[in-house]
Specification:
This protein is α+β, with helices and mostly antiparallel strands. The protein is built from 4 helices and 6 strands; from the N terminus they run βαββββααβα.
């Protein structure tokens, strides 16, 4: 049985999210610890906006890039890439939950970062895709990071 998957993605091209891990911010364990604190503060705001708890299930460092993963209390999961440009990708089977989450994500970003032209551009670019319609993947993120380093 195959279910439809809805992906909600946000790519922080303007680099305004406070939880990025980069060598410019000092890197190392201290930079990672600071970024984690900011990420969990953001996740707390996201939980309030979405009215659902998220459960941290672990982290990965793949090819020098940092990822944190969370499960939703009811259904779905969330991946956060903390290496610039940061990315947030949520996965759901229910279309309505996907749309509710997209709205909650927008509100959480605006409350965390504050309203300005860069955050407005960022939240307007939140995408909802169905199945494999071109959602944000680790491969695409790697390509974007390669372009960013030029």
């Amino acid at each position: 049985m195959k279910k439809t998957n809805y992906n909600i993605s946000l790519l922080d091209v303007p680099e305004v999210l406070p939880f990025k891990i980069s060598s410019a911010d000092g890197g190392g364990a201290q930079g990672e610890e600071k970024a984690d604190k900011e990420l969990f503060r953001f996740i707390s705001e996201l939980e309030k906006e979405f009215s659902e708890e998220l459960y941290y299930i672990g982290w990965d460092k793949i090819g020098g890039k940092f990822y944190r993963r969370f499960l939703f209390e009811e259904e779905g999961f969330l991946e956060v890439s903390m290496t610039p440009p940061c990315a947030i990708v949520a996965h759901f089977h229910d279309k309505n939950r996907a749309h509710l989450f997209a709205r909650a994500l927008k509100d959480a970003v605006l409350k965390t970062v504050g309203e300005n032209i860069l955050t407005e551009m960022l939240v307007e670019d939140i995408n909802i895709t169905k199945g494999d319609e071109g959602g944000l993947t680790q491969y695409k993120l790697s390509e974007l990071r390669e372009i960013r380093t030029f």
